[in-house]
Design brief:
Elements (H helix, E strand, L loop, with lengths): L2 E5 L6 H17 L4 E6 L5 H9 L6 E2 L18 E2 L4 H11 L3 E6 L2 E7 H15 L8 H4 L7 E2 L4 H11 L3 E6 L2 E7 L10 E5 L15 E7 L13 E4 L5 H11 L6 H14 L10 H13 L4 H9 L10 H6 L2 E6 L2 E10 L5 H18 L4 E8 L4 E6 L11 E4 L2 E5 L4 H14 L1
Parallel strand pairs: 1-2, 1-10, 2-3, 4-5, 7-8, 10-11, 11-12, 14-15
Antiparallel strand pairs: 5-6, 8-9, 13-14, 15-16, 16-18, 17-18
Helix pairs in contact: 1-7, 1-8, 7-8, 8-9, 8-10
The structure holds manganese (II) ion (MN).
Manganese (II) ion (MN) binds next to loops.
Length: 432
């Protein structure tokens, strides 16, 4: 049974979390021989967490990275040798398996590793002294000093270097609860790869740490394609729809399945959130159909549910500027310029003058911290379908097609989508 992680992008939003959850549910039904685990590679904002908690599901757990680890290659040892066993017990094992290290126990707890060098050295010593072996020792009598122990969460490459540097044939592996296994040089011959499915993104810069070392087995997305090179053929479903949750819903249909009511509500949540209650111009007919079917499966009023969801979102004045901006912040590289674009949803733009300056200063801090050429914040009023754009100093500001409200602040009536409406203008502006 393999484990396949399903992850959305960094700074996970509802579409990322909900599509990972819904797709894992489907894949576990479709392919029960493997385990599909939805995870998130970033921390949740308070409002996202609040909305997810109301869904009464196991919220996908945080996964720091998908780098190969010692626990992916360690051995547990098929044989149980006691420190007081005679060496003849070990001989029987060697005849069959030829292991380079064997774990040794003392009263059921781990005592140490017996390495093949311990045996060879002892044998050679005996032979050089008497020309024959006169007595059979206990295992503990020939064991030499143990090497350093390795943490099971240690990175593959680090552990490999530790083992080589130790000069030992094998090292014991521990986790927070004690001994869990051991590694020998053979464990490090092939680098293991984590299987990962990407949802709601396909660019490695937006993905979980270590994605370059992983095996990508699928992509479900609705963003521009700047995909990672894969080793093997991969299932890709990339469509310009309003939400990845719609694409996941369509996978249920394609496989002749209906999401259960809880999963339907989860998918609807991501869909409504990403399409701003089906009002964003990214919304397609497919999204509208999916939303209504999902709403009828979980028996809720779509509009009402959407408004109650967005009413949970705090105004920017009450939020910490840095965490508000970074909660949904994506970076792009265009024309050699690194651009960061954040988007915040609000229910009114009337209080913009109250917090504008503080947010502008914070945005500039983020720009210099992340070494961006241009940092931008799109503030979207989801109720009135209207956005404002706050930018750091950049020559691109002059090429934006929006009316300036103030210095580096622009008015964007009817603009709601970062991806579909704003990003093309930004790309155009840096190309000028
Ligand atoms: Mn999305």
């Amino acid at each position: 049974m393999k484990t396949i992680y399903i992850t959305g992008h960094k700074n996970p939003d509802l579409d990322s979390i909900c599509s990972a959850y819904g797709y894992a549910k489907l894949m576990n039904l479709q392919d029960p021989d493997n385990a599909y685990i939805p995870v998130r590679c970033g921390h949740l904002s308070d409002s996202t967490r609040g909305i997810l908690e109301q869904l009464d599901i196991d919220i996908p757990k945080y996964k720091r990275d998908v780098y190969p680890k010692v626990k992916d290659v360690m051995l547990s040892g098929a044989h149980r040798i006691d420190a007081d066993d005679l060496l003849t017990v070990v001989a029987a094992i060697y005849e069959k398996n030829n292991p380079s290290a064997i774990p040794v126990y003392e009263n059921d707890s781990f005592y140490g590793l017996l390495c093949v060098d311990d045996i060879t050295n002892w044998t050679m010593r005996e032979l050089s002294r008497d020309n024959k072996i006169t007595s059979i020792p206990k295992v503990r009598e020939i064991m030499t000093e143990q090497g350093p122990v390795i943490d099971s969460h240690e990175l593959f490459d680090e552990a490999k270097n530790m083992l080589l540097a130790s000069g030992k044939r094998g090292l014991a592996v521990y986790d927070e609860n004690g001994y869990v296994g051991f590694v020998t040089r053979r464990c490090f011959l092939n680098v293991p790869k984590c299987d990962v499915i990407l949802v709601d993104h396909n660019e490695s810069s937006q993905s979980i740490r270590g994605i370059e070392t992983a095996n990508i087995v699928g992509i479900l997305d609705h963003h521009r394609l700047d995909a990672i090179k894969t080793d093997q053929p991969v299932f890709i479903c990339s469509e310009p729809l309003g939400s990845t949750c719609t694409i996941v819903y369509q996978q249920y249909i394609r496989n002749n399945r209906t999401p259960d009511p809880v999963t339907a509500k989860v998918l609807l949540t991501g869909l409504i959130s990403d399409t701003l209650i089906l009002k964003s111009p990214t919304t397609t007919g497919d999204d509208v159909v999916a939303a209504h079917v999902l709403a009828s499966i979980c028996r809720i009023d779509l509009e009402q549910y959407g408004l109650s969801m967005f009413s949970r979102v705090k105004g920017l004045k009450e939020r910490d500027p840095k965490s508000a901006i970074l909660s949904d912040f994506k970076t792009y590289t265009e024309n050699g310029i690194r651009i960061g674009i954040g988007q915040c949803e609000v229910t009114t733009l009337d209080d913009l003058p109250d917090y504008m300056e503080e947010y502008a200063a914070t945005l500039d801090e983020i720009r210099s911290m992340q070494q961006l050429g241009w940092a931008i914040l799109m503030i979207t009023d989801v109720i009135h379908e209207h956005s404002a754009l706050l930018c750091t100093e950049h020559r691109g500001n002059r090429h934006l097609p929006y009316e300036a409200l103030d210095k580096n602040l622009f008015d964007m009536p009817d603009v709601m989508s970062r991806k579909k409406q704003l990003l093309p203008e930004i790309i155009h502006a840096v190309g000028e």
